[in-house]
Design a protein that fits this description.
With about 425 residues, the chain is of the alpha/beta class. It contains 16 helices and 18 strands. The strands form six sheets. A five-stranded parallel beta sheet has the order 10-11-14-9-15. The N and C termini lie far apart (about 100 Å).
Length: about 425
């Protein structure tokens, strides 16, 4: 064991000066702490094991008893020592493995503390990702490849300006989960694997996603969600949100995680049938797997070897998305997917699209009461359960503009002026 003359400045006999110890450790391993989370120049520390090990290695020559308690105590002191106010959130740069790439084309090899750093190097001369593009060509129609390119580029920066989540839907076996594998290679620990449904139902799941760029649900559950408030707030987050960790005081945190789901169907809700909920989703249907296709068991590894080229490809998508004011390229097929999903989840839309009950004409009108009566009749004829009057009226208010209907309180019903809509009328007496 080292003699007292060899002892470090932070050790006085068997007593540790925790402040001196943490200051020395911080000099050896530069880091900051935000909301009790450590950050280095490589971004968020997702596993504190290496910090505990660094403390252990410094204590080991001098301390023989109670090491675990001392390590825990020093880790708490280190959080206080490294305290920092939140770092700025930049939308004009991407922190990559070998430096900082600015979206105007500049590149700097220096590294600063940051919220997110990608594990992939920036190489402007990286080979074109031929296998990746060939894989996507087998998976998606050309227009939807553009959408995926923009979404992957969107995930490179901490922004929710586009206010969209992405769904990749297929029957199974098409290889769509490989998109998640490539994204993991691209984003590293900035991507989480988890359940979109759990984010909605678990009170602590949202805080787990703080500082994350992407959540991937590679086996999306088809059960309808009981609520959609949290999912909608994450997709559109622009202001700090209330976050809660188990056993901790809640706090205001900034969220910019994007959501990507793979499944056999789309995301649905038990009660939220609003157009707004569905319009937050981009739904891409993948091509069916050819019966005679022979899968390459090493394809994932081959795709991940093209990560530097895929980064450049995703950057093209990001630049296109920004040039279009954060509006995604949406194919006719994707629009149809959204409309079908809305219709399947909302029988009011099915009623409005039905034949034999209502018609649409600019100068005609109908009272809200009569419209609801026709809706109930349609439900009875189609063995469907009608919404309450209140819910029906809320749905109609949300759908009015889409069907060119004008709300009014001047519909003539038996000599009285009542509420209703202009642009729609009854086909039944």
């Amino acid at each position: 064991m080292p003699t007292s003359s060899e002892s470090p400045a932070w050790l006085d006999g068997d007593k540790i000066d925790e402040v001196l110890f943490c200051e020395e450790l911080r000099t050896e391993h530069p880091m900051i702490c935000i909301h009790e989370v450590f950050f280095t120049v490589d971004g968020k520390v997702t596993d504190e094991g290496w910090i505990k090990n660094a403390i252990f290695e410094k204590l080991k020559p001098y301390v023989r008893r109670g090491l675990s308690r001392k390590i825990a105590s020093l880790l708490d002191t280190l959080r206080a020592c490294c305290y920092s106010s939140p770092l700025p959130i930049y939308h004009d740069r991407i922190h990559v493995a070998n430096g900082t790439l600015f979206l105007d084309g500049r590149f700097e090899t220096s590294k600063d503390f940051c919220l997110n750093r990608l594990p992939v190097r920036y190489d402007p001369d990286a080979p074109f990702p031929r296998k990746w593009l060939a894989f996507l060509n087998d998976l998606l129609i050309p227009e939807d490849i553009l959408t995926l390119q923009e979404f992957m580029g969107y995930c490179l920066i901490p922004s929710t300006k586009a206010q969209k989540m992405l769904m990749l839907v297929g029957k199974g076996g098409e290889g769509k989960s490989r998109v998640g594998i490539v994204l993991s290679a691209l984003l590293g620990t900035n991507m989480y694997n988890g359940s979109i449904a759990k984010v909605e139902t678990s009170p602590f799941a949202r805080a787990d996603l703080e500082y994350g760029l992407l959540l991937v649900d590679d086996d999306m559950k088809m059960e309808a969600l009981p609520q959609t408030n949290i999912i909608k707030s994450l997709v559109t987050a622009e202001m700090p949100m209330d976050l809660e960790k188990k056993g901790k005081q809640s706090y205001q945190g900034t969220m910019y995680v994007r959501l990507l789901g793979f499944g056999n169907g789309t995301l649905k809700s038990l009660y939220d049938r609003s157009v707004g909920f569905f319009r937050r989703q981009i739904i891409l249907t993948v091509k069916d797997r050819p019966k005679d296709r022979v899968d390459d068991p090493f394809l994932s590894e081959k795709l991940c070897r093209e990560t530097e080229g895929i980064l450049l490809w995703a950057l093209e998508g990001l630049h296109r998305l920004q040039a279009n004011d954060y509006r995604f390229t949406i194919s006719a097929r994707s629009r149809e997917n959204m409309q079908e999903s809305m219709t399947e989840s909302n029988n009011v839309i099915e009623f409005l699209n039905s034949e034999g009950y209502i018609g649409f004409k600019a100068d005609y009108d109908i009272s809200s009461q009569r419209l609801y009566e026709l809706y109930v009749l349609w439900c009875e004829d189609n063995a469907d359960k009608p919404l309450s009057t209140r819910s029906f009226c809320m749905q109609m208010a949300a759908l009015a503009a889409e069907y060119n209907l004008e709300p009014t309180n001047k519909v003539n019903a038996h000599g009285r002026q009542v509420r209703g809509y202009i642009g729609i009328y009854s086909l039944l007496p």
